[in-house]
Design goal:
binds adenosine-5'-diphosphate; 17% strand; binds magnesium ion
Length: 143
């Protein structure tokens, strides 16, 4: 399934605003299949590991803090061209710069609390999906 999966997280503020249902509905309406999903709260070590690539960036500490501030919904999604199509659906990192109709534009609050995560490459999608979901918890789109 390489090339057809991506990992998303509905971030704590969007979860707290009770937007999870509306966001998941945008996702499935756009043709994505939910392979796996769960609600959980990231521990600080988990968030540090997940965002390790950003560990030298000035926003790393705040990012880890905000991502661990409350529950998230994490989901593995399946669709042809998943990485690119999902990045298009969510819009740019900064909700203020994201195109109209995108998830980040409509549900994001600021560049940090930008509603959702989306994987940036096939390689990272695989790493990120493995981080959250064992194969036994994945249910791919039927035939
Ligand atoms: P994306 O989520 O679009 O792939 P990045 O991988 O660059 O963006 O950053 C990861 C996350 O870190 C972003 O989703 C956002 O929550 C946060 N972030 C990125 N840039 C900034 C910034 N300049 N200030 C605060 N938070 C940021
Ligand atoms: Mg990224």
């Amino acid at each position: 399934m390489t090339g057809n999966i991506t990992l998303t997280m509905i971030k704590p503020l969007a979860f707290r605003n009770n937007s999870s249902g509306n966001i998941l509905s945008r996702i499935t309406n756009a043709g994505f299949w939910i392979v796996a999903a769960k609600t959980m709260q990231l521990s600080i070590p988990q968030a540090q590991k997940f965002y390790e690539v950003h560990k030298d960036r000035p926003f790393y500490k705040n990012l880890v803090e905000s991502m661990t501030s409350g529950p998230i919904v994490v989901a593995m999604l399946e669709k042809e061209n998943a990485i690119e199509d999902y990045r298009t659906l969510i819009g740019k990192t900064n909700p203020a710069e994201a195109a109209e109709g995108t998830i980040r534009r409509d549900f994001g609050t600021d560049i940090e609390a930008n509603a959702v995560h989306g994987s940036d490459s096939d390689e990272n999608a695989n790493i990120e999906c493995d981080f959250f979901f064992p194969k036994s918890e994945r249910f791919h789109r039927p035939g």
